[in-house]
Write a structure and sequence with these properties.
It is a single chain. The chain has helices at about 10-25, 130-140, 165-175, 200-210, 255-260, 300-320, 370-390, and strands spanning about 1-5, 30-35, 40, 60, 70-75, 75-80, 85-90, 95, 100, 105-110, 125, 145-155, 185-190, 215, 220-225, 230-235, 240, 245-250, 250, 285, 330-335, 340-345, 355-360, 365. It has about 400 residues and is an alpha/beta fold. The chain has three domains: about 1-105 and about 255-320, FAD/NAD(P)-binding domain (3-Layer(bba) Sandwich), CATH 3.50.50; about 110-250, 3-Layer(bba) Sandwich (FAD/NAD(P)-binding domain); about 330-390, no CATH class. The relative contact order is 0.14.
């Protein structure tokens, strides 16, 4: 029996397993492996620090989300050998493949930044990208009575590039509601030259920060956290003191991916930007945050990639040319506080544009505008995530970015 092995049972790995077990011809077996059985709804962690969500609301058994027809394995990847087409787990189990799909995601590495994980870690230096981090930050905010609060991105790429902005807008609203905004200096610090990676959206989001009295410090590439001074220091020598630092740590790919030569210096896999095939091995495909592609590391991107990757896996099996079908499509709801949100929709070539989404003139969502309906859409997406997206079922969205409903002038 031929083997399709999927490394990673997160968003991308789960939806691919569910799609491929339905699509592959007889004589194929699908195996998905992950190190634990806890599937976390990552976007929900944003709300934990403010008491609007509990971590227990956001976690489900990973293997319950994957079809019973899939061979489901819990184990930590220890070694990968692309030439031998084999993966070895820490317990010694060896899994072979005829086709491999890498969906190992992105991992937090706060320890890569000198001083970050020292005595200030999870006391006055926090992150909200993990369950433990979001809960610790919630406890710290409960005791906050004012001072300098710095929100900082260490460097790109990161999971969900809009999440630091969302946290900044939400904490601004949270402080206002509690009468602490006038007692808090709120600063947004980024290695980028603006609030976001795309200029049009960056200008819009930057204007929102300015309107709310949130200072921006741009082109700040963090070298270290100076613990004794409670200072963030950049490589160009600038220093920024803080009372509370909410940071997005450096991200990297899975260590075994880098160790076997498949990954780049951060451990992300060089991937054809349109076919999602590894640039080094034709029998390996990559999806979601594990790629090195110049698009957002976000669940929506994994969903759009998952709409085209099964066809390319089948084409490879059948010896047919692959389809260069992925255009870098990404869309993101951006929480802006006070019960409103923004929505952006873009791809490799096209900036986020104003308009209505997904239906021209109807919406119901507004692009590059704050609205209550956008906020409700973000909240409703959690249901769609658990019940449709992860199961590999179809959402009524085209995997290619469409210009319908968008204004170009």
């Amino acid at each position: 029996m031929k083997q399709l092995l999927i490394l990673g049972g997160g968003t991308a790995g789960s939806l691919m397993a569910n799609k491929m077990v339905r699509a592959l011809p007889d004589g194929w077996r699908v195996t998905v492996v992950d190190r634990d059985d806890e599937h976390i709804y990552q976007p929900g962690l944003l709300f934990v620090p403010f008491g609007d969500k509990r971590v227990s609301d956001l976690v489900r058994p990973r293997m319950n989300l994957v079809s019973a027809q899939v061979n489901r394995v819990i184990g930590t990847l220890a070694k990968l050998d692309p030439e031998a087409k084999s993966a070895v787990l820490e317990d010694g189990t060896t899994l072979s493949w005829d086709v491999l799909v890498i969906a190992t995601g992105a991992e937090l590495h706060p320890e890569w930044t000198p001083g970050m994980t020292g005595k200030l870690w999870r006391t006055d230096v926090h992150e909200f990208y993990s369950p433990a981090g979001a809960e610790a930050l919630a406890a710290r905010l409960d005791s906050w009575d004012g001072g300098r609060l710095v929100v900082n991105i260490m460097d790109m790429p990161i999971k969900c590039p809009v999440a630091p902005l969302e946290f900044t807008f939400l904490v601004d609203a949270w402080l206002t509601k509690r009468g602490l905004r006038d007692k808090t200096e709120l600063i947004y610090v980024t290695p980028l030259d603006g609030a976001f990676t795309k200029p049009v959206a960056s200008a819009s989001l930057g204007g929102m920060l300015e309107k709310r009295g949130i200072a921006q410090v741009v082109n700040f590439l963090t070298e270290a956290v100076v613990e004794d001074k409670k200072v963030l220091r950049s490589y160009d020598g600038r220093e920024l003191n803080f009372d509370l630092l909410v940071t997005v740590p450096l991200h990297g790919g899975a260590d075994p991916i880098k160790a076997c030569g498949l990954g780049d210096e951060l451990g992300f896999v060089p991937t054809d930007k349109h076919t999602l095939q590894s640039v080094k091995y034709d029998h390996i495909f990559v999806i979601g945050d594990a790629t090195d592609l110049p698009t957002s590391k976000a669940g929506a991107v994994a969903h759009f990639q998952g709409d085209i990757l099964p066809a390319n896996v089948l084409r490879f099996i059948e010896g047919r040319p692959l389809l260069p079908a992925f255009d870098g499509h990404a869309n993101c709801f951006i929480e802006t506080g006070h019960g409103k949100a923004m929505l952006i929709d873009f791809n490799y070539e096209t900036e986020p544009l104003p308009g209505r989404f997904p239906l021209p003139g109807i919406g119901p969502f507004y692009l590059l505008e704050e609205s209550r309906i956008n906020h409700l859409g973000k909240l409703a997406f959690e249901w769609a995530y658990w019940n449709v997206l992860v199961k590999g079922d179809e959402l009524p969205l085209d995997h290619n970015m469409l210009m319908y409903g968008k204004r170009t002038s």
